[in-house]
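note to self: the first set is below, dont mix up w the second
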Amino acid sequence: MKGQILNIFRKEKRVISGETLSDQLGISRVSIWKHIKKLQELGYQIAATTKGYQLIRSPDALYPWEFTDRRSTVHFFDEIPSTMDVARDLARKNCPNFTVVIAGRQTAGRGRMQRFWLSSEGGLYFTIVLRPPIPPVLSYRINYAASMVLAKTIRQLYNIDAMVKWPNDILVNGKKIAGLLSEMEAESDRITYLNVGLGINVNNDPTITEPGASSLKIILGKELSRKQLLTEYLDRYEHRIINRSLERVVAEWKTYAATLNRRVKVVTNQETSKGLAVDVDENGALVLALDDGTIKKIIYGDCFH
């Protein structure tokens, strides 16, 4: 109902009486007043006059009703430990494909290798529940598509050179502005669910604790709409993985890669490798030319330029 009230305000762009809203939505004027009061508490600037109500300004809100075509599959929380944890629970309860869990803040956000991900207010933190009809061995393609689409979306929305760092970070001018983490459950040759979690530094300032990071606000010198970025990204990513083949996604990913043709250090749970990153193969493995002349492929690890 809150979404319907907001849609009327945004369409009409004028003062609308409580009686008109009541008639259009089929609820009492008291219910209209209660919904508007709650919207005001949530940060929507709605003027109340003797002639009715008018929406003056909307906050940068990520509530389900802000995503008209997705409101039934979007779950928003002001603060939770991790969107990945909530998404895992929903996935195991058979939530629909492309369910999205969003957090205003995370108290236990995490990145790869179980690192803590700073999740301060102003950033964009969400996890997408996917049920792709592909075998588990090809699940890496979903991750490559996720980071590649994010880099393209940022480039096209803000005209900045977002690049991908193997395996799935987003860099601008060499500084990290986004990271990706995925989690999968599978049965033999079928993926039960694959959850893709992203953390994007939008209007927050991560440099206080992470000097090698940045945010879109710092780069562009102004605050941005997280709703616009998330809406664009979800639409583009869903279209990419549903309507287009993923066979060449790694090749497309490489056209935005900041990791190739430079010396890197890759840390895994077992070892540390140093060398020249010469390629990413068709299976998503980073190909290193080591100093002794040998070639090494690494499937998973933390990469440092």
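second set (the one i keep forgetting abt)
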Amino acid sequence: MSNKTKGVIVVLGASMMWAIEPILVKLSYAYTDVLSTFTTRTIFCLITIAAYLLLTGRNFRVRTKYLPKLVYVSIAATLFADLMYVYALGKVQVINAVMIGHMQPIFIVLIGFAFLKDDRITRFDYLGILFMIIAGILVTSRTLSNLAAVRIGTVGDLYVLFATISWATTAIVARRYLKELNAALIAFYRFLFGGIAFVIYATFLKGITINNAYQMVLGVIIGIGTILYYEGIKLIKAAQVSALELSTPFFATILGFFILKETITMIQFIGIMSLFGGIYFLSRKEYPANSPLN
């Protein structure tokens, strides 16, 4: 089996895991609250990634110079963004949460342009951002009447947007400062510091309780998804990973329909299609005018 085939399989596997995540969160909320769900999610996710590192013989130690960056990634991605996302899932449809979460490339491009001197915004980036903004507006407005009245989104959608921006900042930090670290090791520390802080907080506040199996399975699913994603980006190109990740909204929509009885409108479906256009243009490269590839 070629590396490309392996990469496609593992990234699709990661996309499926991330599509399952919001379903499990909503199922867990039928038996417990945000605090318990997020605490056990974090614990079992860390256990899953740590087990993977041990089984593959990886070393947990990192050089001191990486620690401040890893702490930031963990606080911003886990303690803020993940928590915001899990909380918002109690207020929005699965498709809204997944779609807004997949608008992360917009903010990676914009933040990268502002802080990474070697990055520049091309005409394809502008087109990609436009398509993704259209996708977000269509999915969150849901109907033509809402769109016409400029009723775009809810407070829950805004929470997911804040989470998406925070995730994008951690991607930039990892890209600029953590390139030399093993991807699975980054994934472990991504959950470690923020996870420890939240577990301590939850323990003192009301203790750690497991009221349903969904809480535990949720953590394992996220751990597996993170591992598969990082393995995938080592096997295939970033543009291919981005394109394959677009299967997540489709998986999530199907699961949301059959398990949660959530439906999507035609406007939302058009929004999903627009997301493809956004990723396509963001993955394009602009060559010099005299290049035969242009």
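remember for set 2: The chain has one domain: 3-282.
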